[in-house]
Amino acid sequence: MHVRWLKPEIFEIYKETLGVDSHIVFKSIQHNGDLCFYTIDENDAFTGLICAYEFEKSIKITAFLGKDTSTKEKLLKSLIQASYNKPLQAIITKTDSELFRSFGFETYTEVLEYISNSRAVAFNFTTNHAKEVNNPNFFQIAYRLNKKNLGDDMYEYCKNDMNSTSSLNLATDLGYLHSRGLHKDILISPFVINDMSYLDAEKLLRGVLHYRGLKKLKVFIPNILEIKELYESYKFIKNNNLFLVYLGEKPNIKLDNIYGF
Questions:
Q1: Range of the domain at 189
Q2: Could you give the number of structural domains in the chain?
Q3: Peptide bond into 190 cis (omega under 30)
């Protein structure tokens, strides 16, 4: 088995069969190609990949898959070596938790995947409501809230790499929500609010449901009662249990304000 740098032209060949977030993988390769790897076997067959995106204070794994444990071990080891002791973060499945623990990762919090179902929720959404969630200062609001609640400078990511052709950016003075197409679904990510701004979170969720309601929406949230109750009140259901893990310095994330990782 061989580990190689993942180049855009290589990923282009395999992307349709992998089931990963192609947009963020391409952006990760463009932003920091030295943190993206893939593996091939003795017959030059593709067997796995790992990609990560480097922020000011941390590196976040954006894609990870392998045909077996040995492949995943090689990929994760390659990324750790390339990170030069900079803190790493990842949202992982329970299946991968033992592997990550073996490399020294610790669990920061449980993460829940919620998806919208086909039962529509009736609510009023007027022109005034639309104006409330279309604050023109989206990027400035996102920068401020990310620094405060995620503990990292994500401005370059939000400004240059987060958006795709399917992106929808919504914001109030006290929160922001980004959504974009992911395969046949819509991914809500990120979705961050200010302290004690539950009403703004609901306004933004109503906004994305109004504009995207005919699609299946997907979001990853911390296991916090108030956040779960908001989504469940709009007929979202829990689909999976995952974990946010880290290696190195422990993150400083205000989970109460994260309505979508």
A1: 113-260
A2: 2
A3: yes
